[in-house]
Amino acid sequence: MHVSGGEGKGATGGGAGNRTSIPEILAGRSKEYFSRFDSIQAYMDAVLRDLEAAGGLDSVGIRLKDEYDNLPFVAHRGYPDKFIREENWLRVDRDDCVCTRIARSTTCECDTTGITRGGSFSVDNFPAFLESLQEEDKCRYRHGCRDAGFRSITVIPLVFRHETIGIIHLAKREDERRQGGAALEAMEAAAPLVAEALYHYRLEERLRRSNDLLRTINSLLELSLSEMSLDEIISRSLDLVLSIPWLSIESRGAVFMVEDEPDLLIMKAERGLEEEVRRQCAMVPFGNCLCGRAALRREVLISDHLDREHETRYSGIYDHKHYCVPILSPSGEVLGVINLYRGKGHRKSEEELDFLRSVSRALAGIIMRRRFEQELARSEAQMRDFMVLAAHELRHPITIISGYAHLLQNYHDRIHDGDLPEILSSIQASTRRLTRIVDELLDVSRVESRPSHLVKSEVELRSLAESAVDEVRRLGHQRDIVIVSPGKDIRLQANEDMLMTAVFELLDNAVKFSPASTTIEVIVREEGGNGYVSVIDRGRGVPSAFRENIFERFTQVEDVLHHSTPGLGLGLYMARKIAEEHGGRLSYEPRDGGGSIFTITVPLA
Known about the structure:
Blueprint: H1 21-36, H2 40-55, E1 59-64, E2 70-71, E3 73-77, H3 81-87, E4 90-91, H4 98-103, E5 121-123, H5 126-131, H6 135-138, H7 144-147, E6 152-160, E7 163-172, H8 181-225, H9 230-242, E8 249-258, E9 264-271, H10 275-280, E10 283-285, H11 289-297, E11 301-303, E12 321-328, E13 334-342, H12 350-411, H13 420-449, E14 457-460, H14 461-474, E15 480-484, E16 491-494, H15 496-512, E17 519-527, E18 530-536, H16 544-547, H17 571-581, E19 585-590, E20 596-603
């Protein structure tokens, strides 16, 4: 190897030609560096400065293996930008070059002439060395050093406890002066001390990063136990992530959440974003731009520049990089996305990704817990309303039955024969009302406890609708109900009893909430591989404030204590559950001119 003495670049360890300058600097001061510098980066930079100065080298660098078998330059000086871009991220297990072979301690026969007694690889004239190889061996070298104009190169293994943890890479363009093997031997002697220091620095660094992760997760858990709202927790969580010093990210980013619409991301917190970004990214549909694609694919999306997938653009936007990390529930449901801006020149880091995935999992747990708490509170409120509503519903028929029973028992001799039919009719109507309440509760229980695999048979939709109309009339509702359907049969595989119950509930709802003089329409049709049953009434419709929750259990358009229409608010909920059990859905839309249109959609296949 060609290494100049003190006259090259201002050596710090002795005069010109002092062959002991390198061991004095590296071996003698390695332990001093270890105690003197706070970070591995500061230590490596100091070592490189001494190597460069003492050896008169053009380029010096240290490559360290990471846990993912990458072999990047973790510190370097003097290399051309093109060389670093193309040669930086080598893989020990995949890329074949002398650097990776030295790093995995498996040199090949073509390396033999360059291998030293200390196990390094060093050649004085690298272009001539390449030309001396057989054609089939030339491909064993990536030629990056030759293309960068390096005449001599040296690769020294960094070995600690019999394990090669990395390499020192040295290169020189001009053959100014030959110092001989003493300088190389000195560097080889110092390399184990450097390796030991680097090993301990990396160990300390990993411990610090593990502690950062634990502190971050603990902070998130503390936030989840606080009285803060979920939006406040998300905002504080973003601050925690952006404050981690070793994450190579800018102080810019955002957290999105999925709220009412299942395929739409809503920005809940941001830091450092331009006004135009905040405006355009306030709502991001799944599949749109980087965050939407990360949500749709349910995987981390990493961008290295402003490419065509970055659909959000505005005047003056600059080229930048992203980490887009989806927040997923254990079942794979997308709860949100973390978007961070990576620093300039930043390379993807698996360690950073592992950290962000851990944060994402913690946030997923917090979001699910808060939603569970909200759902529990809502269920408790619904149950309280239901208890009041059920008591109100039961009291009326029970009062009638009890009153007439008392009248018949104590005053039967005073009752005129002509009054008996009215009394008995009232008792029967009250009994039917009680029976209907019990049946509704039992039907809901069956729907909610029924296994997801239904016993199905071939069903014809018009016939099923006619059966539901007959059931309505059997209960005494003498209404004008018209069925409209195409001339052909519409057949599908379904559980006939359940699907008929769903249509009946829509009809029962229409009867309750529309004037007796109006007509109720039942439209049966087929379109796009689906069967549709729509029930159209001319009542007052559903106020906009109630439409969002109209299909939830115990939902009543009127106040539970003052509603005038009998029922427990279970009919539409049950119809929706039945439609979903069949792979379909129940929808609502207001009718032009007043009234409601409820439609059950069920796949025909």
